[in-house]
Amino acid sequence: MFQLSQIRCFVVVANELHFGRAAARLHMTQPPLSRQIQQLEAALGVPLLERNQRNVRLTPAGKAFLPEATYLLEASQTAASVARRAASGEAGSISLGYVAGASFVLLPRIVAAARAQLPGLDVVLRDMSSVEQYEALLSGRLDVGIVRAPADRADLRSASVVREPFVAAVPVGHPLAARRKLAMADLHGQDLVMYEPGQGGSMYELLTAAFHAAHVAPRYVQYVRQTYCVMGLVSSGIGIALVQASAAGLRVPGVVARPIALPPDTVSEMHLAWRAADEKTNPAVERFRRLVLAFQ
């Protein structure tokens, strides 16, 4: 099989049609250049050049082979460049998991920043719960995740990227919609749409713990997983809900958002999670991680 060095020699000779000038361009003498061409012709089993003391001409096989040989050289250079860029983290692909709440503000910011600052990096999005993301990180099916709860394993890392208050989503026409600001006690005995427990996102655990500590007992009328669904149910009038403040930007018809006084540590939080080993072995993940953490 022929080698790229032989292809390179042939392309230069074919363009120059002169061994002396070709050898000068390749920074070599004519005898080794002639051997490279002879070895290429032997590997292909056909003559590529007709040469005598005065002239060098391409054979029909040489004319047909020249554009393919030129493409091979360009492709090899492209492949080398792609490999170097991937090794430095400038190019490649990463899979990014995210909880639905990240799609309101954080995820669009991340995607826009990655396109602007890491244009060679292809970010593939995966809508997953926090539990699903941690399982996918451990199995290697996911590179980075935006999760609700921080990592609790030695082989995973996480960092907080968003902390925002909760607001009360109230149906239009509900008595509490007339208030400018609510207190936790206002929710006692009220019908409440609550996040589904057991999703590893801590929203249910966080809010129910705050209610318990304040001796507030809402009536839970529905448990759902996604904030979009929470807002839709509030719009239907079946109850109030506590949602992250950025969800108010959805502007769901029939719903008004009201500030509510909660304990200082009762906030909606999101974390960036990744495998600890990737900090040293995956340059693309490391560059992406630094980009996102710069949002703090």
Automatic annotation (TrEMBL):
Domain HTH lysR-type: 2-59
InterPro entries named in the record: LysR_HTH_N (IPR000847), LysR_subst-bd (IPR005119), WH-like_DNA-bd_sf (IPR036388), WH_DNA-bd_sf (IPR036390)
Cellular component per GO, a single term: protein-DNA complex
Gene3D superfamilies with a match to the protein in the record: Periplasmic binding protein-like II, Winged helix-like DNA-binding domain superfamily/Winged helix DNA-binding domain
UniProt key word rRNA-binding: no
KW Transcription regulation (keyword) present: yes
Protein origin, superkingdom: Bacteria
Molecular function GO terms recorded: DNA binding; DNA-binding transcription factor activity
UniProt keyword list: DNA-binding, Transcription, Transcription regulation
Signal peptide: none
Pfam families documented for this protein: HTH_1, LysR_substrate
Family note: Belongs to the LysR transcriptional regulatory family.
Name of this protein: LysR family transcriptional regulator
Taxonomy of the source species: Bacteria, Pseudomonadati, Pseudomonadota, Betaproteobacteria, Burkholderiales
